[in-house]
Specification:
Elements lengths: L11 H18 L3 H7 L4 H29 L1 H21 L3 H29 L5 H30 L2 H20 L7 H5 L9 H7 L1 H31 L4 H17 L1 H11 L2 H17 L6 H17 L3 H9 L5 H29 L2 H22 L7
Helix pairs in contact: 1-5, 1-6, 1-7, 2-3, 3-4, 3-5, 3-16, 4-5, 4-7, 5-6, 5-16, 6-7, 6-11, 6-12, 6-15, 10-11, 10-14, 10-16, 10-17, 11-14, 12-13, 13-14, 13-17, 16-17
């Protein structure tokens, strides 16, 4: 079969099924980790720190995740991540103290790094370049759909099993992801394996970092800024809504509406990237997010705030998959997993650093100033991508 005969439907279940279930697992537990910590006696600040351990666990595990995926292959790495995450979720469900809960949450973050890198590496190898952006956008979209559905399933389980029910739902979702990975064929690890040629030698992570330092110092900075914007927006929307004295019920509805828009536009955006080039989506995405965040501190009533939040959600939605697509475009055939590990590390630095900077500026100046700073990140990312993103059209 030639690349021109390839269809995403052929790999839909093994490629996107685990990501949908992974998103469901994460979505089920994210709203209840802090509640579990509070129930075990944690202060508000400590509960927030324990919740953040998912991101910290992923951050410190990105480069080791590349090593695991390189040596085990994507399929076995997925199985390992699903099993490890299931153990971690069981620890969280049965935790009788803060230390076991924190350990379980940190382990979930470690498994997340392996899981996401294995999915990304598989699609980078298995999908022809002219479909790559659609594949990566669909991968991100499947995860977002899962994150959207997960809290509802978790809420139903909590009704019967208390907070532990959310972790049980997450375990079932991870078990489903493991079953799909188990029943799927072995995934190719390099394009060379599909042509029958011997695989090239594997460079070390340090060699990959040295050989591609220019990419990491340019596009990598843009990726860090995108990570900071995306992680901060999840905090900005509820905080500014509270600042405007909007009720918690309406805040939840507004957030759900923003998430719905986020989910609806990922595939069309991927198609545009494949047919017209990456910049046609990357630049509008970062620019719109930046503008929405710069506008938000000037909103003083519900309707303007909702419009700014919807613009932010639309900008983020069309950008689904841009970080993974750029990584797949820039990654070498030999040492791809190591490259993706460093790339994900940079993205996670942004994910972790954005909320921290937002909190610092808010404490020193004001919430509006913090939101405006994140908005400037969006415009800066637009300039970085405009200068350094390759102009060629994939097909």
């Amino acid at each position: 079969m030639t690349d021109s005969d390839f269809s995403l439907r052929q790999i839909a279940v093994p490629a996107f099924g685990p990501s949908l279930l992974y998103g469901t697992s994460n979505g089920a537990i994210l709203p209840v980790i802090a509640l579990s910590a509070r129930e075990l006696g944690a202060s508000v600040a400590l509960a927030g720190l324990i919740t953040a351990l998912i991101g910290i666990g992923s951050l410190v595990s990105n480069i080791p995740a590349g090593w695991v995926a390189e040596r085990l292959g994507e399929r076995r790495a997925l199985l390992l991540a699903a099993a490890f995450s299931s153990v971690a979720l069981l620890i969280c469900a049965l935790a009788t103290g803060l230390a076991p809960l924190a350990l379980g949450v940190f382990m979930v973050g470690m498994a997340t790094a392996v899981f996401l890198l294995a999915r990304q590496a598989y699609l980078a190898d298995a999908v022809p370049r002219y479909l790559r952006a659609r594949a990566m956008s669909s991968l991100g979209g499947a995860t977002r759909i899962g994150v959207f559905v997960g809290p509802f399933l978790g809420a139903g389980a909590i009704h019967f099993f208390d907070l532990a029910g959310a972790y049980y739902v997450a375990m079932l979702a991870m078990a489903g992801a493991a079953v799909i990975a188990w029943r799927s064929p072995d995934f190719p690890t390099t394009a060379a394996t599909k042509t029958g040629e011997p695989p090239p030698p594997r460079p070390s992570t340090w060699q990959v970092l040295r050989d591609h330092a220019g990419v990491f110092a340019t596009l990598g900075i843009g990726v860090m800024l995108v990570g900071a914007i995306r992680s901060s927006r999840q905090i900005v929307i509820p905080l500014w809504a509270e600042h405007l004295s909007i009720s918690p019920t309406w805040i939840s509805l507004i957030y759900g509406l923003v998430s719905a828009i986020d989910m609806l536009v990922f595939y069309p955006a991927g198609k545009v990237m494949d047919q017209m080039g990456r910049l046609w989506v990357i630049l509008p995405s970062t620019f719109l997010m930046g503008v929405a965040l710069l506008i938000m501190p000037f909103t003083t009533s519900t309707v303007p705030f909702v419009l700014a939040a919807l613009l932010l959600g639309f900008g983020n939605g069309i950008g689904s998959g841009i970080v993974m697509t750029l990584a797949a475009d820039a990654s070498p055939r030999a040492g791809r997993n190591a490259f993706l590990g460093v790339w994900r590390l940079m993205a996670d630095i942004g994910n972790s650093g954005g909320p921290a900077l937002l909190a610092a500026v808010t404490a020193v100046i004001s919430l509006g100033a913090g939101i405006g700073m994140i908005g400037v990140f969006g415009l800066t990312a637009t300039l970085v991508f405009w200068r350094f993103t390759p102009r060629q059209v994939p097909h």
